[in-house]
Amino acid sequence: MKKGKLFLIPSFLGDNNKALLPQQWSDAVMPVRNFFVEDERSARRFLRAAGFDANFDEVKLMLINKHDPEQSLAPFLDVMKDGNDAGIISEAGCPGVADPGAAIVKAAHEQGIEVVPLVG
Length: 120
Prior knowledge:
Layout: E1 6-9, H1 23-29, E2 34-37, H2 40-49, E3 60-63, H3 74-81, E4 86-89, H4 101-110, E5 115-117
Parallel strand pairs: 1-4, 1-5, 2-3, 2-4
């Protein structure tokens, strides 16, 4: 079975400005239905401001526990191992650098899951 991809989704810092997101962002993110987030409410708000129009009843938001660095990564990796694409949304700009998403990115690389950084 083909593995899904892990998209690193940059979030807005300050005022939400959809104009900063290139078409590549929309093409990659609009079909994604699995997101790893630090805060569900702000992730939903960011996605809506960016033009994400999916019904959130059909979207899975998995909470990254920033207070538990030993959190099990298996549920996050299983999403992609099952062939589903996923995205990490950071509360501080670009995910995977200095936030809890970094552990998921590292584990994805170790499992041969393609990691795709997006710009915006």
